[in-house]
Amino acid sequence: MAHRHASRPTRSSAPTPPLALAGTLLQRTLRFAEPPEAVLARTLSGANRVGQRLRHALADALYGALRALPQLHWRWQRLQGGTPAPLDVAALRDDAPACQALMALAWPIDAAPWLAQADATSAEVVAEWQARAQAVSLDDAPEAVRLGLPEWLVPRLQAQVGGELPLLAAALRAPAPVDLRVNLLKARPAQAREALQQALGGTVSTTPYAPHGLRLPGRTRLSGVPAYEQGWVEVQDEGSQLIVALVGARRGETVVDFCAGAGGKTLALGAEMRDSGRLYAFDTVARRLLALPARLARAGLTNVVTMQLRDEQDERLERLAGKVDRVLVDAPCTGLGTVRRHPELPWRHDPASVAQHAALQQRIVAAAARLVRPGGSLVYATCSLLREENEDVAAAFTAHHPDFVVQPAAERLAAARVPQAQALVQGPYLRLWPHRHGCDGFFAAVWQRRG
Ligand SMILES: C[S@@+](CC[C@H](N)C(=O)[O-])C[C@H]1O[C@@H](n2cnc3c(N)ncnc32)[C@H](O)[C@@H]1O
């Protein structure tokens, strides 16, 4: 085998464009200024436009590299000789040759032909790295490397799932299915399912827990599909749908979605309310709320009022203090329950960012609670797996708010006709795990304000 390419590439032996592009994609993603989809769109534009098949291959390699970053890094270091050092993401993103090598190792086997077509030398380098890496075992690698997780995360997750940690880590590495929520304002679940099966030609299953959820087999493009274009279905993970079920919004009520973002849960809440009453969608980031009007129109919702908050203390909130039936706080969090869809997240966060999120979450839930009327309810939710952002935040809120009483999530889920509600809770809280429930990881606590 020619070792010319297998050694650490240098400037004088610069790799050919597709692999150089691949390395740039990984370097840019690891700066965490924008998500991988945005990095792909920005990088593969203008002079760097590539054909669709190569573009897909580059995207698959990028997601594959993010999903297996410590393993690839370990193997790459072993191939360099010497003792592997712990993965240092800040150093890696400045190391172009290393990023190219990791992307070569992550290049999808079935996409080798597209690479060979685009550039024979890149294809040769990929084949060579991959062949050499096969001989490198992970058996003597540290646990975090074998699990594919950052070191700081391992003890935190271990404390919660114990011996299930390898299953959880594997579930986090696997790509997520596409879940849909049927919009009851426009279609019945069976009707939507049949329409989708006809349009997509594959089997569409129902989700095991969310009452109005459908699951598509693998990656599917929905644009142009009539049931989607007409607002019969919305893309929404089953876990998100279960958070909405927990809120239990009803016709004619006043409901606040305090951290509405692009409105995924707002749309579901509005449908639960059958487009009656008043639904407020707040967020501090105007850009996120911008997507909402078009989505509301497609979903057939007219009962939603959106407002950009300055922060959670915005004085305009005073008008609603003590008046709202149900408040949902879908709090900003590390998102570590959504790693299947966002494999960059474990590398973006660290214990300091977890602590920062927890502090913000405490402030937001306390501010949002002021809106709840006596007898009304509050739901605090995150898509994080970490106790610091979940049970700890909920416990601190309960300790400081004696007028709020924790409600068992299982009861609320059962009332919303969620099957096997007991399997979805830990103590009084909703706790969804990718390896147990097949959806993103979610946490939610529910309180009722004393009347
Ligand atoms: C988990 S995301 C919401 C996702 C959204 N609910 C959905 O279902 O698509 C959290 C949101 O909280 C917003 N946020 C951050 N700080 C906030 C604050 N102080 N008050 C209200 N919203 C805030 C973020 O901009 C972000 O859109």
Structure, explained:
- This protein has 451 residues and is of the alpha/beta class.
- It has three domains: 11-148, N-utilizing Substance Protein B Homolog, Chain A (Orthogonal Bundle), CATH 1.10.940; 178-235, Alpha-Beta Plaits (2-Layer Sandwich), CATH 3.30.70; 238-449, Vaccinia Virus protein VP39 (Rossmann fold, 3-Layer(aba) Sandwich), CATH 3.40.50.150.
- Helix content is 44%, strand content 14%.
- The protein is built from 22 helices and 13 strands.
- It has helices at 17-29, 36-43, 52-67, 69-80, 89-92, 96-106, 112-118, 120-133, 143-147, 153-161, 165-173, 189-200, 226-229, 238-247, 264-272, 286-289, 292-299, 345-348, 351-369, 391-400, 409-415, 434-437; strands spanning 178-182, 205-206, 213-216, 233-235, 254-257, 278-283, 304-308, 324-330, 372-382, 404-407, 425-426, 429-432, 442-449.
- Strands 5, 6, 7, 8, 9, 10, 11, 12 and 13 form a nine-stranded mixed β-sheet that branches.
- Helix 15 (264-272) links the parallel strand 5 and strand 6 (278-283).
- It is globular and about 70 Å long.
- The termini are far apart.
- Bound molecules: S-adenosylmethionine.
- Residues 240, 258-262, 264-265, 282-285, 288, 309, 311-312, 330, 332, 364 line the site of S-adenosylmethionine.
- InterPro entries: MeTrfase_RsmB-F_NOP2_cat, MeTrfase_RsmB-F_NOP2_dom, RCMT, RsmB-like_ferredoxin, RsmB/NOL1/NOP2-like_CS, SAM-dependent_MTases_sf.
- Pfam families: Methyltr_RsmB-F, RsmF-B_ferredox.
- This is Ribosomal RNA small subunit methyltransferase F.
